[in-house]
Amino acid sequence: MVGTEFSPTDADFRAGFAVLVGRPNAGKSTLTNALVGEKVAITSNRPQTTRHTIRGIVHRADGQLVLVDTPGVHRPRTLLGERLNDLVAETLSEVDVLGLCIPANEKIGPGDKFVAEQLAQTGGRPIVAIVTKADTVSRQQLAEQLMAVEALGREVLTAEFTETERRKGIRAQKKGKSYSPREVPTDLGFTDVIPVSAVDGFQVEALGALLISHMPVSPPLYPEGELTDEPELTMIAELVREAALEGVRDELPHSLAAVCEDMIEREGRPEDDPMVDVHVSLYVERPSQKAIVIGKGGARLREIGATSRKQIEKLLGTKVYLDLHVKVAREWQRDPRQLSRLGF
Ligand SMILES: Nc1nc2c(ncn2[C@@H]2O[C@H](COP(=O)(O)OP(=O)(O)OP(=O)(O)O)[C@@H](O)[C@H]2O)c(=O)[nH]1
């Protein structure tokens, strides 16, 4: 993660990496899009749709913020889950500020606490608690949630502090030395707590500024105008996967993967009206799931194709011929070889 260009010479210019984490459906992807101002991360009503680390880049006069959108931090059940958690741990260790997303309209639960504890364990990095979806609650409810989030910060950071001191004591004891644990500071807690709404834009600017204020003084890390460094093929695959999931609410939970096989400019087209042939394979685990994706007489697949083609055309800025294939890759979630083939 090294800078490529040094343009603004301002001595106060800041640049660095931020990550938004939170339990599934906390609003991370939507907030990433709102901060960046263009659709780069994939949002969906379904939890855990964000499997790839997609970066959006916020360019401002005073700094540059590279956002890494992680999958929801959750307890691993399959091999895929374990890989996701490795990815999360790796990402957390590489960023300058941690953004913990907690929705305004849901009681703080064990999921939020679990994620907050993981962040506290990264040790010493600023944690900005972001209370998302502020538009969905009254001012009174929002105030109460902000206080509950403050309390959560106090709780997990105090627990982490105490645990660290306890470990130091044990290590010292093993070496035959004595260690008197430090007193718990009274001001432990999240670095900031800020409410936002990605839907009506409330405080989105302020959040951008706040996150940048935690970045180190640095030249920009990416050239201006760049929104994401995710390869187009991956973004195309994500768009198709999103469209395929939208249609089927409960039948196809996480057993669906998409791979963009290639993207070739069609020859012999007029220069002012180019067209790109895009080939995407959708992978499911069982023949019955294949039938769901294809639908009666291919109706669902046509719908998926039409929806995602429009989005791919927007992304590439040209006409697109989209060729979709549905394939069965049994138990792909548990097979490491298949996983790497699918880019996980
Ligand atoms: N009203 C309102 N809804 C929001 C806001 N932000 C997100 N949502 C909705 O909340 C749901 C989840 O949002 P996502 O951005 O997909 O959540 P996520 O945390 O990325 O979810 P995963 O990918 O599952 O981890 C979607 O239906 C969004 O439309 C907001 O500011 N206001």
Automatic annotation (TrEMBL):
KH type-2 domain mapped to chain residues: 248-330
Domain of life (superkingdom): Bacteria
Annotated ranges, domain Era-type G: 14-217
GO molecular function, one term: ribosomal small subunit binding
Region described as G5: spans on this chain: 196-198
Natural source organism: Kocuria subflava
PROSITE patterns: G_ERA, KH_TYPE_2
G3 as annotated region, ranges: 69-72
Annotated region (G1), positions in chain: 22-29
Protein name: GTPase Era
Family classification: Belongs to the TRAFAC class TrmE-Era-EngA-EngB-Septin-like GTPase superfamily. Era GTPase family.
Keyword Cell cycle: no
Gene: era
Record region (G2): 48-52
Positions that bind GTP: 22-29, 69-73, 132-135
Cited HAMAP family: GTPase_Era
Subcellular location: Cytoplasm; Cell membrane
GO cellular component: cytosol; plasma membrane
Function, as annotated: An essential GTPase that binds both GDP and GTP, with rapid nucleotide exchange. Plays a role in 16S rRNA processing and 30S ribosomal subunit biogenesis and possibly also in cell cycle regulation and energy metabolism.
PANTHER family in alphabetical order: GTPASE ERA, GTPASE ERA, MITOCHONDRIAL
One example of a Gene Ontology biological process annotation: ribosomal small subunit assembly
Membrane topology: Peripheral membrane protein
Subunit structure: Monomer.
